[in-house]
Amino acid sequence: MNSVSGITLRGVKAVPVEVEVEITGGLFNISVVGLPDTAVREARERVRAALRSVGITLRGRVAINLAPADVPKEGALLDLAIAVAIACVQGGVKVKKPSLFIGELALDGRLRKVRGAVPAAFLAREKGWDIYLPEENAAEVSLVEGVSAWRVRSLGDLFAHLRGEIELPSVAYCEADYSPPQADPDFSDIKGQSAAKRALEIAAAGHHNLLLVGSPGSGKTLLARALKGILPPLSDPELMEVLLLRSTVGNSISAVRERPFRSVHHTASAVALCGGGSTLRPGEISLASRGVLFLDEFPEFTRDVLEALRQPLEDGQITVSRASGSVVYPAKVLMVAACNPCPCGFAGDPIEHCTCSPSALDRYRRRLSGPILDRIDLHISIPRLMPEELVSLEGKCGESSAEVAERVRAAREIQVKRWSGYGIGSNSEIPEKLLRRKILLTPEVKSFLLRALNRVRLSGRGLSRVLKVSRTIADLAGSEEIKLEHVAEALSYREGEALSWMKI
Amino acid sequence: MDELWKCNSKLFTELGITERAAVALKTKIDMKWAEREIEKCLKLGIRAVGIDDGDYPAKLKDLKDPPLVLYWHGSEKKMPHRCIAAVGTRRASTYGRRIAQRIGEYCAYAGIALISGGASGIDGNAHMGTCTSGGKTFAIFGTGADIYFPRSNANLFRDIMECGALISEFPIGSQGEQWHFPKRNRIVAALSSKLVVVEAPLKSGAMITAGIAAELGREVWAVPGRIDEGMAYGSNKLIFEGAYPLIDLKDFFETGASAPFSNKDRLADPVQDVDLSREEEEILKVLRIGGGQTVDNIALEVKMSAADILKTIAILSAKGIICSSGSGRYSVNV
Which of A239, A172, A233 is nearest to A409 (CA)? Predict the structure, then answer.
């Protein structure tokens, strides 16, 4: 038999699909079996027309079998494999080496871009197969090392290559650029807000989740976007994870190690955020994995969406289960939530007046509190600067993102060194039992904490979060010991402190 | 009562009670309303203090219409003779809330009970200040003493029950009818020795309370507010009309027509006299000139990095010397 395979996607994994073709006499008919979805079934028309464009006219009954028969097949990327399998039977084409063929066919025989090229490349590398893919997918596959891949512009070229008439261009491996990506916006583009910038630095250094509270126009979104610029570049395994996910959903891919930033609108459904659907697509939280997930207007998200976020935030991964199977997606995100202090947005503002009724305020803040807020380590209020304050800050831009990123990198290195033996990468992931054993406080700091606890009423989880943030602040300062000043600063980012002006 | 009814139903009309009211009264008696009310009280752990009771606050008798019964829900059994009332709007500014909280805290330091209305805004913050600093505080309700209104203050009310009491003249289970609150205000006014209006617009419950307090001869104080702010117009007007302006918290406790409430030593705020580092002094100096500063503003004045300023601010606010005064802004504690 031939050795023509295509793939279908199960989560971020490519499953090989062997394509078999039998042509017998009779009236013209093409049938596809092996649990094809609509897109695969419609491949019949595309394949027939594309084959005709290269001079292969189909006659008789064409039976196409996609094996294994019990795995549902999805997407148009099987077009090419089907066309090649048919050509092997009828067009005098020979595939000498087992190969993967992916690509969507145009009626005139051109190949169109598909999603799932990177998972396919991973599969080809694992099996030692060749892979033939559309020209437009070459860029993403070139980032995967050790794949023998060929870029195909049209069906005619491919057949000529397989017959040994011409040589298709291969895809050369090129390493992703290590140079730090251009921060946009840069920290120095943001006027003032040094308190918030400091909190962003801590969040980036220790991978702590963040809540920004501020009036409209105070710069919450801008600050959240700037966070991306101070995160360290993606490492190789991280880059591969990001590539896999992006390729799976067909997002554009560039050869930089910039971390993903996903901004989600509050009308998003739980499925859109966490993943699912009959094809088990990854959700926004997985697409933001290793990067930033930004939730603007945090209290406007529906209750079940926020509840659904709790588990992945804790575990760093999410299991999506449906009748058609279950897939585990990564969900290691740095969550940045932003909200107004009240429905009208002006509570605590020095100029504008809050016009909310007490009951509306109460309702709004009740939505803001709850278990999800307990999972956010840093709470920051962002002042809306008055015009005269903005003027006085003119020309004082502060540090650039690159300088901050350097400190973040150093702090992350310390953490990696400290925790590498325990299988965790950052301070925010320290498990409870290590926290008690590894984070030792001097008596002076302990008594300070005890006094503070009476004042701000922290839960047990709240206390461990404060300790983790203190650890990060100490790491940023390059101090092995956690000092009083570190704990004091960490405490000031807690809900009870940072948002105390909002109470009652 | 039954006999009274039988022998002369006209007696009621002569006493000035309308027939409808008399009939309503009789049905209540027939249904054993009082007995059932007492039973409910026992179940909820609420005491009913009658006007002839020894624990009934004597000062209430200054009123023309003192409540016949007070429902008393909490650990504190008796109202101290001298207490301070702090009242104000529910829609208070950050400034108003802060001052209310400080008044509450100072009451605790001075060992004087604080009474207020248990509403959100000024009332709630004043109660909270006293509670968290370990003082005594009493909330006078416009609902039944078992109804937490507003619900968002439920935690606060639980705290108040521990360090004081929730008091109401309305029967168990009464909801907050509109006409209850002005009636509640007269109790707040009568119970106080000094009443301070922290922030109130011209037409507000706090102004009614201040009016009653002045009629009863209580000392009325008001916290000066900005003149361009509607929420402070009422309290400013009180000052114009002769109320004491509250410009220093210590003076508030020590001066006025009545005898001083405390000696200076007791009032010494436990956090004021602590050693400060050079950085702390510097930041304090900036904040003393003007409150409501952001970290950026401070950074313009002192030569320190944002991280250092935040760290110092964190320590200063942990010591209770400065506090957050609005979104991302800091002020010196009064």
Answer: A233
Question: Rounded distance, CA B250 to CA B235, Å?
Answer: 20
Q: Is B151 within 8 Å of chain A by CB?
A: yes
The DSSP code sequence of A432-485 is HHHHHHH----HHHHHHHHHHHHHH---HHHHHHHHHHHHHHHHHTT-SSPPHH
A209-256 confidence digits (pLDDT tens): 999 998 888 889 999 999 988 998 888 888 999 999 999 888 887 778
- Residues sharing a CB contact under 8 Å with residue A316, sequence separation 6 or more, in sequence order: A330, A331, A332, A429
State both tokens at A263.
Answer: 């901004």
Interface contacts (A, B; CB < 8 Å): 126
Residue B129 in contact with residue B123, Cβ under 8 Å? Answer: no
Kindly state the average pLDDT of the residues A12-33: 92
Q: Does A489 touch chain B (CB under 8 A)?
A: yes
Whether a cis peptide bond, with omega within 30° of 0, leads into B150 is: yes
A195 with B325: Cβ contact below 8 A = no
E strands present in A68-147: 99-101, 104-105, 111-112, 130-134
CA distance B121 to chain A (A): 6
- Per DSSP, the residues of B101-112 read HHHHHHHHHHT-
Per-residue pLDDT at A1 exceeds 50 = no
Q: ω into residue A68 within 30 of 0, thus cis?
A: yes
pLDDT tens by residue, B226-240: 898 888 999 999 999
Structure tokens at A54: 């290269």
Q: How many angstroms separate the CA of residue A234 from the nearest CA in chain B? A: 26
pLDDT digits (tens, 9 = 90+) for B89-102: 988 888 898 899 99
The answer to whether A389 contacts B294, with C-beta atoms less than 8 Å apart, is yes
Strand partners, A319: A328
- Closest C-alpha among A300, A291, A104 to residue A181: A291
Cα(B159)–Cα(B280) distance, rounded to whole angstroms? 34
The answer to whether A194 contacts B311, with C-beta atoms less than 8 Å apart, is: no
Closest CA to A382 of A115, A126, A190: A190
A321-368 pLDDT, tens per residue?
Answer: 887 778 899 999 999 999 998 888 888 777 777 888 878 888 888 887
Q: Any chain B CB within 8 A of the CB of A385?
A: yes
Is B323 touching A (CB cutoff 8 A)?
yes
- Determine the pLDDT at residue A504: 46
Tokens at A501, concatenated: 């002006």
Torsion of CA A36, A37, A43, A45, to 10 degrees: 110
Q: Indicate the average pLDDT of chain B.
A: 87
Query: Chain B residue closest to A348 (CA)?
Result: B326
Between chains, do B306 and A214 touch, taking CB under 8 Å as contact?
A: no
Measure CB to CB from residue B326 to each of A398, A455, A501 and give the nearest one. Answer: A501
**Contacts of residue B97 in chain A, CB cutoff 8 Å?**
501, 503-504
By CA distance, what is B291's nearest residue in A? A350
Report the pLDDT value the prediction gives residue B262, as an integer from 0 to 100.
56
What lies within 8 Å, CB to CB, of B214 at 6+ separation is: B220
ipTM: 0.79
Question: In 10 A of CB A440, how many CB atoms?
Answer: 10
Q: What is the pLDDT of residues A95-107, one digit of tens each?
A: 888 999 999 999 9
For residue B132, list chain A residues with Cβ-Cβ distance below 8 A.
Answer: 455
Give the integer Cα–Cα distance in Å for A445 and A488. 9
**Residue position matching structure tokens 């990327």:** A77
